[in-house]
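Here is one such protein, fold included:

. . .
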Amino acid sequence: MGRLAGFKYREVARRLRSFGYSFDRMGPGSHEIWRQAATGRKVTLPHHAKEMAEGTLRAILREAGIGIEDFLKA
């Protein structure tokens, strides 16, 4: 398991909020669209009870423009 393994929805959402993202609207299925007000950047966040796959979290961070080290420090 890598450094990004073991994160659940709540923890990822809390850390996204610290970078200025907030819930915008529901997406398809059990996904949510989060938006950063300052830049208008969007990210799709799956809202599941289980832990997020490391590859999924990496893709979310890439889409959000957040570095892995910055995310882990938040």
